[in-house]
Design goal:
Length: 688
């Protein structure tokens, strides 16, 4: 029966929650009823019809109902479960299967299980059947005991939610608490909660979220909440875009003579895609409003050259331009490349990092100039006067607040953000919806073909021979491993050990070492030796993932390739094939054909287009891992399906635009509850 609880009611108002349970919930960060009701099930079990033991599909998780016919300690060692080989085994009889099939459930190092179970009890178990000894068993399954006469309870004969047990409250008890909260939720609307998604009201939908009548009802409800989350995010994006468009900007470009001079000095011609992107940027910079543009393209598509053209447009018009890179190595590389390319154009270039500052050109006077730097540029004294253009390389490596700190000034500069990681369309619409987008969909000519192949430990000798052949031809080699040394808990090869192995394998070759713990000056020296071909083999962590450009390097060996995401593997592969030579990416793995990890690597082996790989990566790993939750604002997202659905995003954008058209600053009583979304700029539920 409906009660007086509101979504905003404190958990203390729930008399059905016991003191110890309340303390556990509060320790987990729960404060109000809405926190409890938006604690999503990690999965559902359809307890209207259980799986049968005699119809199991190999390897798939199953939900079985059975009666305990025997339980006790098994194995060897001391009594009471103290021996290393001792485990608790419960033998269950599946009465629904042909011949009343029996199966075992095993628990290791969990002596309390033996005290909980006894013959005659009915249980529901969930897990995977795996061979153990000579029979199939479930090892450490999720389980619930069925109480006598509860066939009509909330725990049986329905689709039931299964929650995480992280708070120490049994799943069964959590189910009862959520059910009671839904029962006592007031049907009256709450003025402090604005229902801005058309359709089923939030409170009605919550029941289907936890106790759906069907899988279809559950999925429909999730889409309803996904649209609500999407709208909240799109509202923030649309508001930022409108606010940026309303700020008077500077005209930071006039003529384009420097760009023409640069193009004429190059030993190659810009691709049509590069020319198109430069024209789009030029139009923005000539307009009397602030440019906010995203430049994205595949690995090696020439984004840095497009950015340099944009900076020259600003310099020619008397403004300074700043490029912020995420690492010392990348900033140093951009700086050296720009110095070389602009040598004859008389354009000053300066470098600013935490380790190194070339102060001579920070003040360019009346003449424009270019400053390349790292996070050190976030401090005002390192930014030149008359700043007309800010270029942010590898945007996803920086937080939104860092970007704002660099560009927030009385005369707002134009902004060009770049990413070398192709972004799936849905995530572009979501997280860069306030930016205009330029896409480099062509590749410069004169590049060698890149061949990718999966190899295992048994192929090691062939790989070493191939490396020797490439070295004899004068080429250079990258060897990338996931770890710095062997002390980390994660499984994988360490660069320190790899260095010793390659030095032993190639005694007459200079082998370099590069990783993130090295001092900046040492990293810079190592990269310079590799660029100048004084080092033939570079053993490194993924610190070389972005921006490193050595045209003579033709082989990229990636150890424990299964540990990396698809996009990261593509980024690493992008360090080769930058010259005219045919190049080879070798994915060393411990996975075996048929494994899920092997299939992932096969996608990289057969797909060269970064945008296609990004879409596959999104499906495999989900948005949080692809973008990085700390930088993308994904921490508050509960219903990730909207991040995979262009239609939901467009619908969320339509609703957001309609709201802001009606009330641009959300000051009316109708929309005032949404204002915190605009002020916080974070992904949160509107009810928060």
């Amino acid at each position: 029966m409906a009660g007086n609880l509101l979504l905003t009611s404190p958990l203390e108002a729930c008399s059905f929650i016991r003191p110890k349970e309340l303390a556990a919930m509060q320790a987990a960060g729960m404060a109000a009823v809405r926190d409890l009701l938006f604690m999503l099930p990690r999965r559902y079990e359809d307890r209207r019809m259980f799986d049968r033991y005699d119809s199991l599909s190999s390897g798939a998780p199953v939900c079985l109902r059975g009666r305990v016919v025997d339980v006790g300690w098994k194995g060897w060692g001391g009594k009471g479960g103290k021996g290393r080989g001792r485990y608790v085994e419960a033998v269950l009889e599946d009465e629904q299967s042909l011949g009343n099939a029996r199966f075992s459930c095993l628990w290791f190092s969990m002596p309390g299980i033996a005290r909980m179970l006894c013959a005659g009890q009915e249980m529901i178990v969930y897990g995977r059947m795996k061979p153990y000894g000579k029979k199939l068993s479930m090892v450490h399954p999720d389980f619930e005991l069925i109480r006598e006469g509860e066939d009509n309870s909330i725990h049986l004969n329905r689709i039931v939610p299964v929650y995480s047990g992280r708070m120490g409250i049994p799943v069964r008890r959590l189910r009862e608490i959520v059910w009671e909260a839904l029962e006592q939720l007031s049907p009256e609307p709450e003025p402090e909660i604005y229902e801005f998604v058309p359709g089923v009201p939030c409170k009605t939908a919550l029941r289907d979220l936890h106790f759906p009548g069907s899988a279809e009802a559950r999925d429909k409800t999730r889409r309803r909440f996904a649209l609500e989350e999407c709208l909240a995010q799109q509202l923030n994006v649309a508001y930022r875009r409108r606010r940026a468009e309303a700020v008077p900007g500077m005209q930071t470009a006039g003529s384009s003579l420097l760009v023409r001079d640069l193009a004429a000095s190059l030993p190659f011609e810009l691709t049509e895609a590069q020319k198109r992107c430069v024209r789009e940027i030029y139009r923005d910079m000539k307009a009397p409003r602030s440019m906010n543009r995203l430049l994205q393209g595949d690995v090696g598509s020439g984004k840095t050259l497009v950015a340099l053209c944009a900076m020259l447009l600003a310099v020619e018009h008397g403004y300074s331009a700043v490029m912020m890179a995420p690492t010392q190595i990348l900033a140093e590389q951009h700086y050296l490349k720009f110095r070389q390319m602009l040598d004859k154009l008389d354009v000053p270039v300066s470098l600013v990092t935490a380790e190194r500052k070339e102060e001579s050109h920070i003040s360019f006077g009346g003449q424009g100039g270019i400053v390349v730097g790292t996070h050190a540029l976030l401090y005002g004294k390192n930014v030149p006067e008359r700043l007309g253009l800010v270029v942010i390389d590898e945007q996803h490596k920086f937080g939104v607040n860092q970007r704002e700190k660099l560009i927030a000034r009385e005369e707002r500069p134009d902004v060009l953000v770049m990413t070398a990681t192709p972004i799936p369309r849905t995530l572009t619409l979501t997280f860069y919806g306030d930016l205009d987008v330029s896409i480099l969909d062509g590749m410069p000519g004169g590049r060698g073909k890149v061949v990718t192949a999966i190899r295992t430990a048994k192929d090691r000798e062939k790989v070493v021979k191939f490396v020797r052949d490439q070295l004899e031809e004068g080429r250079q080699i990258y060897v990338v491993s996931p770890l710095i040394d062997g002390e980390e808990s994660r499984k994988g090869k360490a660069v320190t050990k790899e260095l010793d192995e390659w030095k032993a394998l190639l005694p007459h070759v200079d082998v370099g070492l590069l990783h993130g713990r090295m001092p900046a000056e040492e990293k810079e020296a190592v990269m310079k030796d590799f660029r100048d071909n004084r080092t033939s083999v570079l053993v490194s962590t993924t610190v070389v993932e972005v921006g490193v450009d050595v045209p003579n390097a033709t082989v990229m060996i990636i150890n424990n390739a299964e540990n990396f995401g698809l996009s990261q593997l593509h980024q690493l592969r992008g360090r080769i094939g930058r010259g005219a030579y045919k190049s080879y990416c070798i994915l060393m793995t411990e996975a075996q054909p048929g494994d899920e990890q092997w299939e992932k690597l096969h996608i990289v082996e057969t797909t060269s287009n970064g945008f296609d790989l990004a879409e596959q990566d999104l499906k495999l790993r989900g948005p949080g891992d692809v973008l990085g939750t700390s930088q993308s604002g994904l921490k508050g997202v509960r219903f990730e399906e909207w991040l995979l659905d262009v239609r939901l995003i467009h619908r969320g954008r339509e609703l957001a635009e309609a709201i802001l058209t009606e009330d641009p600053d959300l000051k009316s009583a109708k929309y005032r509850p949404l204002r915190f979304l605009l002020e916080s700029g974070e992904m949160k539920r509107v009810a928060n």
